[in-house]
Structures are given as structure tokens and as C-alpha cells.
Automatic annotation (TrEMBL):
Belongs to the sigma-70 factor family. ECF subfamily. One of its GO terms (biological process) is DNA-templated transcription initiation. This is RNA polymerase sigma-70 factor, ECF subfamily. Keywords: DNA-binding, Sigma factor, Transcription, Transcription regulation.
Amino acid sequence: MLVDKALALRELHDQHAAAIWRYAVYLTGNASNADDVVQETLLRAWRTPRILEQDPATTRGWLYTVARNLVIDDVRSARHRHESPVGEPPERAIEDRTDELFDSLLVGEALMTLSADHRAVVVRAYYGGQNTAELAAELGIAEGTVKSRLHYGLRALRLALQEKGVVR
């Protein structure tokens, strides 16, 4: 039985493989893909006993239909839809930081309007990440003075930014 099946498949291959391959090349535009289509078509013939039992001369239409369906299934597959070969990898998108640059320029200009004492406390607190105790120790002033300068410095900074139309 197995020898008969293998003999029937060989006869089917000998009579139809070249024609199916040409048809698959026509459909896919690629010889290596056509080889895969022919192989899968004959494998499906092997798995379908009624096809191997028929006269090999009468099965060409079935083989063409199977080959066409395999090509269609491949084109519809996620692999085919989501992969597209390119010559070079795409460029990485660079984040636009223009707004950040303008914001930093505006804040820098507003900071320049503060007194040196207020500016020193605000810059060290917000850009340096220091707390009031650390600022008092570094600047050699009382912690209450640091809090006062921070309060009035931020208030003056807000007014300067309001004048520039940044803050309401």
C-alpha cells in the first residue's frame, strides 16, 4: 500500500510538478516561493488519498487550485502583511525638543530678573534638589531666611513669567 502511494505520488510529481511550479512562479514572482508551493501542494496530495487513487492525468485542476489557495493564504498571512524587507534600517525618530529649549530660555530670562539672593535659593532648591536645611548650611544663613527667600523668589519668578505671557 505504502509503495503504491509513493509510486502514485512520484507519477503525479513527474507529470505535474513543472507545470505547477511555472504557475506558482507566475503567482508569486519568486522561484524559491514557487518551490515551497509545489512541495506543499504535493504534500497535500499525499495527505488526500482520493487524489492519489485517481488517474494522475486528471488531477491537474485540483493541484492548480491547491497551489493558488496556498499562495493566497501566504499573502493573507500576518508574516506577509507585517514584514517588508528594506535595504537599510529605518532612521530612528528624534524627539522634537524645541518647546523644552524655549521654556528653558524663558525661565532663564525670568531668573535673571530676580535678585542674586533669591536666584541663588531658587536655583539650588529646584535645580540642585537641596532642601531648606541644606541650603541654610551651604549659604550660611538661617533656615527661616531660606524659606522666606524661596517664597518671595518664586513669587517674583511667577510675576516675571506672567509678564512674558507664560503663566496666568
